[in-house]
Specification:
By secondary structure, this protein is mainly α. It has nine helices and seven strands; from the N terminus they run ββββααβββααααααα. It folds into three domains: about 1-75, SET domain (Beta-clip-like, Beta Complex), CATH 2.170.270.10; about 80-155, no CATH class; about 170-235, no CATH class. It binds zinc ion (2 copies). One zinc ion binds near residues 70, 74 and 75.
Length: about 240
C-alpha cells in the first residue's frame, strides 16, 4: 500500500465515457493511455468513477464527493431508463416521475414513478435495490434478490449488469463454488458491458479490460480442469 500525489493528473477532467484510461506502472508513475483517436484540440478525459454505476448514482457520488454535477457527454445525453415498472416492465424515465400528494410519512420523500398504465412505484425502492446491487458479492446468490433486480431494472442497464458482475466475480476467487451459470455469465459479461456502455467498453475502461483478461484466464483454467478430470488446474 502507498499514497501518491499527482498534481498534473488532477488537471484531467472526468468523462463517464472517457478517451483515456489510467494505471500505475511498475515505477509508481501514473500512466494515461488513449483508447481512441483524439483530434488536436479535443479535451483529454478520464473516468473518476466506476462507469458502470447508474446515472443517478454517478451524479450522487460526484455531488457528495467531488462537489460537482457531471454534465459530461454521456451524462448529458443519457436519459435514465435503467428503471422499469415492476408490474408491466415499461422503461421509466424522468417523464414518469411524480410527487405524491399529500406528502406522506417522514421516511418517504414523496417521489414515485407512474408508468403509462398507472402502476405506481416508490423511487426509494429503486434506490435501495441499486445500493444492494453493489454488495452482491457479500450478499451471495439469493434467488429472490436476483428475481427482484430483474423485475425493477432493465436487462441491458448498468444496475443489473453490476449486480450480476459482482455476483459472478465473487466466485472467481473460489473456483469450487463456480457453477455453469457463473461460467455462462462470465462469458457473456464483455458483450453485456458493450451493450450497457456503448461499443468496445473494454477498450474504453481499463478496469473492464483487466477483468475481461481475468475471465479469459479463468475460463481457460476451467476447461483445462474439465479435460484433466477431477485433478486441480494447479497440478503439473
Ligand atoms: Zn458523466
Ligand atoms: Zn406498469
Amino acid at each position: 500500500m502507498g499514497l501518491g500525489i499527482f498534481p498534473t493528473a488532477t488537471l484531467i477532467n472526468n468523462n463517464c465515457a472517457p478517451n483515456t484510461y489510467f494505471y500505475m506502472d511498475n515505477y509508481g508513475m501514473m500512466v494515461y493511455r488513449s483508447n481512441q483517436d483524439i483530434k488536436a484540440g479535443d479535451e483529454v478525459t478520464t473516468n473518476y468513477l466506476d462507469p458502470l454505476q447508474s446515472l443517478t448514482r454517478r451524479r450522487e457520488i460526484f455531488f457528495k464527493e467531488f462537489n460537482m454535477f457531471c454534465e459530461c457527454s454521456r451524462c448529458a445525453t443519457m436519459v435514465n431508463t435503467e428503471n422499469q415498472c415492476p408490474t408491466c416492465s415499461q422503461a421509466l424515465g424522468k417523464q414518469n416521475l411524480r410527487t405524491w400528494e399529500p406528502q406522506p410519512a417522514s421516511d418517504f420523500d414523496g417521489q414515485v414513478y407512474i408508468c403509462d398504465k398507472g402502476h405506481t412505484t416508490m423511487t426509494m425502492a429503486y434506490e435501495m435495490l441499486e445500493e444492494l446491487s453493489g454488495y452482491a458479492d457479500q450478499v451471495g446468490h439469493l434467488p429472490h434478490i436476483e428475481a427482484t433486480m430483474q423485475k425493477y431494472f432493465q436487462s441491458v442497464g448498468t444496475v443489473w449488469l453490476r449486480y450480476i458482475r459482482y455476483e459472478a466475480l465473487s466466485k472467481v476467487d473460489n473456483m469450487l463454488r463456480l457453477n455453469s451459470k457463473t461460467v455462462e455469465t462470465i462469458e457473456r459479461l464483455p458483450q453485456m458491458d458493450d451493450a450497457a456502455l456503448g461499443i468496445n467498453a473494454r477498450y474504453l475502461v481499463h478496469g473492464l479490460y483487466k477483468e475481461a483478461y481475468k475471465y479469459t484466464m479463468l475460463l481457460y483454467l476451467l476447461k483445462e480442469k474439465k479435460k484433466n478430470g477431477s485433478s486441480s488446474p494447479s497440478q503439473q
